[in-house]
Amino acid sequence: MDEQTDFFHPRENSRLFGHNDAERTLLDAINAGRLHHSLLITGPKGIGKATFAYRLARHLLKPEEEDGLFGPPEPATSFDMSEEDPVFRQVAAGGHLSLKVLERQKNPETGKIPRDITVADIRGLSDFYRMTSADGNWRVAIIDAADDMNANAANALLKVLEEPPERSVIILLSHAPGRLLPTIRSRCHTVPLETLTSDELREALAAQDLFPTENDLELLLELSEGSIGTAAAILQIDGLELYREIERILALPGGGFNKEIDAFSDRLSKNGQDALYEMFADFLERALSRRVLATARAGHAPAPGGELDRWLEVWEKVRTLFAQAKGLGLDRKHTILNAFLHVNGTVQGPSAR
User: Fold this and answer.
1) pLDDT digits (tens, 9 = 90+) for 214-254
2) What does each C-alpha distance from 184 to 96, 100, 246 come to in angstroms?
3) pLDDT digits over 75-115, tens only?
4) Which of 12, 43, 139, 172 could disulfide-pair with 8, CB 3.0 to 4.6 Å?
């Protein structure tokens, strides 16, 4: 699921921040009667892909207005719909018969979320398209996210895309479209959604009663990559201060083996600090990535033992360390200290190893 807010499932969300150009393009295609039968909506997590997809679905599912006294109705100028509209209510309740949604959902019996969207799910989609639309209008399917399909499901989807029924649209959401089968991508019209601008991010956060300062907004936009959900999470657990603390530690002489780092690792490894620890792991990788870019831009060429190679090496070591710690359930404090141990060796140079 790709949400723009913590408070609503995207099917219940009537507000979309940003993406006006993409909406305008699709609206023009609908009004001209040339909407593609398969749409691939792409972009980073949390920027509103699912919210966008449900807005499009509701617009298509709304019964067409009949001609009035003065001719046909004016074409729609946006996908906006009142929350009181029957179509909006049916979609929000998950009960519209002409809308099929495939997503990984928690099993009510086991409480677990399946790892994949399976071939059985895709077969259910084929059955859906064989049915007559509830009102003779569009039939719409949303796959959230296509990245979650296993190999068999992806191959089964190809058959659906090859023979699309009339007045049907399938909307695929993807955070990493390059990982999808090329044959799936080639059968879809791609709708790329951009990360939000600082003004759009500010407006979206204000809707959640979150008000970053101007000094914080630029860093927040960079760390969240324009994702409202990520930006909100960063603000709610004081993630900006966490990132600045990481930067201060990285700037310490000798890499920072001192009481400050020991206290820092103690704090992040306590019970109940899961979100903060995971954010730390992400932020440290980003901070090291920035060191790599800064070193390259300073004119350091790749060379064995050179500064650029050393930062690349520590970045890769830290990424591997966190991946292993997550997969094997390693002690968090030791993981944090080992990460800074790798950094310490890089800051001091080859002689420290």
Assistant:
1) 889 989 988 998 888 889 889 989 999 999 998 888 777 65
2) 27, 19, 41
3) 888 999 999 999 999 999 999 999 999 998 877 788 788 88
4) 12
Both tokens of 177, joined, read 């479209």
Burial of 243 (0-12, 13-18, 19+ CB in 10 A): buried
CATH of segment(s) 10-192: 3.40.50.300
C-beta of residue 15 within 8 angstroms of C-beta of residue 60: no
Lookup: tokens for 229: 């959900």
Distance CA 101, CA 121 (A): 10
Residue ranges per domain, the chain? 10-192, 237-352
- Which residues neighbour 114 within 8 Å (Cβ) at sequence distance 6 or greater? 104, 105, 107
Q: What is the number of other CB atoms lying within 10 angstroms of the CB of residue 346?
A: 24
**What span, in angstroms and rounded, lies between the C-alpha atoms of 267 and 337?**
12
Q: In this structure, are strands 99-103 and 189-192 parallel, antiparallel, or unpaired?
A: unpaired
Q: What is the pTM of this model?
A: 0.79
Residues facing residue 102 across a β-bridge = 143
If phi over 0 gives left and psi between -120 and 50 gives alpha, with beta otherwise, what is residue 339?
Answer: alpha
Structure tokens at 286: 């980003």
